[in-house]
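User: Hi! I have a protein structure encoded as tokens and I'd like to know what sequence might fold into it. I'm fairly new to this, so please keep things simple.
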């Protein structure tokens, strides 16, 4: 992003989107990978290496932070790390979503999107 915000890769935006949709505002790595797989219909699969490099970058940029351990109703696994968006992360994700929305609108006007046939 040219306005001084961190440049989001597709993996970074997908990770922020997964965290924005996470239960209780947080998620662990496996849940993030599952979210991306589900919303992309299996077209995008974040591997562990990509995901954890992405998370490390998002943490360093202040867009994501580690969250406290699982809630009391969840089994404890000391190896599992939970992450959540920071306010800055939510703002950057929202700006990226708005930008992508504008691109999709232009693609629609250019006739590049499949449209459902109306009866």
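Assistant: Happy to help. Inverse folding works backwards from shape to sequence: for each of the 119 positions I chose a residue that suits the local structure. Here it is:
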């Amino acid at each position: 992003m040219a306005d001084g915000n961190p440049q989001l890769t597709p993996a970074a935006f997908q990770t922020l989107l997964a965290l924005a949709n996470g239960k209780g505002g947080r998620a662990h790595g496996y849940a993030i990978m599952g979210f991306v797989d589900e919303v992309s219909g299996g077209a995008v699969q974040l591997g562990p290496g990509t995901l954890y490099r992405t998370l490390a970058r998002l943490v360093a940029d202040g867009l994501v932070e580690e969250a406290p351990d699982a809630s009391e109703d969840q089994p404890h696994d000391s190896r599992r790390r939970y992450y959540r968006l920071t306010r800055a992360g939510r703002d950057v994700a929202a700006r990226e979503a708005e930008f992508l929305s504008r691109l999709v609108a232009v693609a629609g006007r250019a006739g590049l999107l499949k449209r459902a046939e109306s009866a």
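A useful reference point when you look it over: Helices lie at 10-20, 29-39, 48-60, 87-109. Feel free to ask if any position seems puzzling.
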